[in-house]
Task: inverse folding
DNA sequence: AAAGCAATACCACGATAGTAGTAATTCAAT
DNA sequence: ATTGAATTACTACTATCGTGGTATTGCTTT
């Protein structure tokens, strides 16, 4: 089966060129094309193409906003951003919004087809520069276990902090660790003192980054 | 200035080959090589090479553990994993640990040099398959604002939830919103009911993902 | 017009959490 | 050998939270 593709692109010429390219290539089938995000949002959830090529700059709603809306509606569909230059921040935003990969517009037709196959098969084609941005962002999230703070705490204290983060009550923590509730109290008092806070939520926000507020 | 490189690789032959390749190529300089992680951990922080090539499978400590220790000590240094096959999970772990890119061992010398230049210049060379894993993981972190749950809550309730996540007391929230503490109480009771929880921490863990526990 | 929800507000009770002071034991470091 | 931190544990008091019941107002939706 050919890979079914939809195009969102405001410039008529380019849209037509892409359509012709795709339909003229074996294994590819362009099943729809739209000149704006609104139209695409209305139609794409019904036809669920395998891959959608999205121009990042669209007249009304941007390509990013468009993906943001569409991706939750068609989880199976792969969205590939088309961008003019290597605008890392914009591409990064698009990936956050749910895009699965991107290509620069100047990419040769054969490489474009390659990239479509790649996203279709579960890859995320991107330059190593963008990759670095993504990796860094994700490394930050992983290691936001504020090492300075955590280092202050003893083994036991860290252990208890873990349970605190799960929302357990003192009694429950005590039972898990076969300790007296009063001991847990003492540990938590010490934890709070070391972290310079005075509530569970403050402690968690201090050690693991804030949740709701970046 | 040539890019200074250190190698961590347990097989003598390969280590020597790499050293020769690097020193024989213009713009590259292999300034150190180690056959195990422990030795590398002791020395690399002192010499701070531009790039370190790390074999993922090492006799004692693994390459991943090694990067985990070293990366915080030399933030400027770029770590590049060398792996035999496209073992996505392992590579993924390595990236979490702080690696900046990877290459498969079968890569041709010229491409290896290219990749080194790429990491050195702030890229993260990786296949599109790995890129996808990284992107997905990071998309999860971004959108873990459990939309199903949040949608249940009214505007006011979400607002209050934000303050809850900051660790404010009922009284403090009330003051911020110019409402009675009792009103906050009521809202929070409703929030808890909608989320099917019965404590602040549980509510936060439900809506924003759990922090300390993946 | 009635039903329903969102938003506001109060009272009262019991549970949980946070604060303060104190102390014994153990283990590591000086 | 002594100091110091970690771990354990207790008592007592206060503050904050969680829960239940109830009520008014205003806006939608039927």
Result:
């Amino acid at each position: 089966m050919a890979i079914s593709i939809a195009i969102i692109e405001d410039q008529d010429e380019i849209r037509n060129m892409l359509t012709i390219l795709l339909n003229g290539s074996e294994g590819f089938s362009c099943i729809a094309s739209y000149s704006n995000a609104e139209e695409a949002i209305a139609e794409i959830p019904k036809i669920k193409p395998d891959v959608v090529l999205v121009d990042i700059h669209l007249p009304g709603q941007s390509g990013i906003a468009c993906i943001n809306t569409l991706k939750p509606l068609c989880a199976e569909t792969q969205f590939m951003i088309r961008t003019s230059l290597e605008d890392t921040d914009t591409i990064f935003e698009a990936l956050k919004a749910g895009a699965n990969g991107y290509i620069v517009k100047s990419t040769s037709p054969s490489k474009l087809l390659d990239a479509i196959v790649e996203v279709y098969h579960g890859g995320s084609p991107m330059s190593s520069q963008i990759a670095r941005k993504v990796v860094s962002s994700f490394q930050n999230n992983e290691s936001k276990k504020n090492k300075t703070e955590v280092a202050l705490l003893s083994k036991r204290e860290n252990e208890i902090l873990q349970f605190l983060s799960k929302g357990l009550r003192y009694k429950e923590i005590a039972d898990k660790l076969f300790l007296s509730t009063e001991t847990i109290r003492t540990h938590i008092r010490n934890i709070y003192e070391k972290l310079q806070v005075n509530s569970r939520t403050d402690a968690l926000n201090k050690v693991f980054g804030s949740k709701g507020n970046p």
Remarks:
- Residues 169-171, 185, 188-189, 192, 198-200 of chain B lie near DNA strand D (CB under 10 Å from a C1').
- The first helix of chain B runs from residue 12 to 23.
